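lol forgot to send this yesterday, sorry. struct tokens for the thing we talked abt
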């Protein structure tokens, strides 16, 4: 079994600038961001291009990543609630991971950092176009639109306890990037491409300082449809005891029509009441979100 440390790597050329804090494998069955970060740090440490500030890459859920499961006891992307943070209760594996992440962030943030940026790397259970999920706080939305992929607003407003919601409330500028299907090489490329572009946008990296422009950057710039912006209008939430089954074949951003059969819940057919788009349809056993509905802005 591969052993993982909390910090995957860090890189700086000791110039004043921001902290770019990148989290990967907040869900342990989503290794794509980890692999992307490992590749990026290998290139940075070999070629040593100048950047302003520091990039730090960390593993979100170390225990779950080592076991290749989404989580050990509870979803780490739902634990960041005001109640959990105030009580400082570490009664689950994920709450322990959460407080270790907070401690790591505090330890790597130095007085010379001019501001803080974050990217939280995720993947989905089914194939998907890459997209950014952004909370409309501070400069998040402006930063998100510097990247050439679809942008979704409103996820953290509907779902409580997300890591990007926590970061945003701390005044850290950033977003979640969902890069595609869990084990896909394309997901690794899109994660890598977005992180490279973040180094350019936040830390002033000039790609000419590298031997070659990373192929992942070119794929991210050229391999996706023109950027659209969407907002979430509905979450179909699930309880632990629910028997939920999505109809097969739905993909992110697929148009849906009123009356269309979307899923079954405890034996009852669930039909769409929207002319809109399906978003994050659940095709895995673990999860408390059946699907979301989004509209284009």
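and heres what i got for the seq, position by position
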């Amino acid at each position: 079994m591969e052993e993982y440390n909390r910090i995957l790597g860090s890189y700086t050329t000791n110039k004043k600038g921001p902290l770019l804090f990148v989290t990967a494998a907040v869900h342990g069955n989503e290794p794509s961001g980890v692999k992307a970060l490992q590749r990026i740090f290998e290139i940075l440490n070999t070629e040593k291009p100048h950047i302003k500030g520091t990039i730090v890459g960390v593993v979100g859920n170390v225990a779950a990543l080592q076991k290749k499961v989404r989580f050990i006891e509870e979803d780490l992307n739902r634990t960041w609630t005001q109640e959990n943070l105030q009580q400082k209760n570490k009664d689950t594996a994920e709450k322990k991971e959460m407080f270790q992440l907070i401690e790591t962030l505090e330890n790597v943030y130095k007085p010379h950092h001019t501001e803080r940026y974050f990217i939280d790397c995720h993947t989905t259970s089914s194939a998907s176009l890459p997209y950014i999920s952004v909370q409309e706080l501070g400069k998040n939305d402006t930063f998100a639109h510097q990247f050439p992929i679809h942008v979704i607003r409103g996820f953290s407003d509907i779902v409580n306890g997300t890591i990007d919601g926590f970061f945003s409330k701390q005044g850290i500028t950033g977003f979640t990037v969902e890069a595609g299907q869990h084990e896909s090489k394309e997901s690794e490329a899109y994660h890598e491409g977005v992180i490279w572009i973040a180094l350019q946008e936040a830390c002033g990296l000039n790609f000419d300082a590298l031997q070659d422009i990373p192929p992942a950057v070119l794929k991210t710039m050229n391999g996706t449809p023109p950027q659209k912006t969407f907002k979430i209008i509905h979450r179909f939430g699930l309880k632990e005891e629910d028997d939920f089954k999505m109809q097969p074949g739905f993909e992110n951003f697929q148009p849906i029509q009123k009356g269309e059969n979307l899923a079954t819940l405890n034996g009852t057919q669930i039909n769409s009441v929207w002319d809109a788009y399906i978003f994050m349809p659940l095709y895995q056993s673990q999860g408390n979100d059946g699907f979301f509905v989004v509209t284009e802005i």
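The CA atoms of residues 130 and 179 lie 4 Å apart. anyway ping me if u want another try
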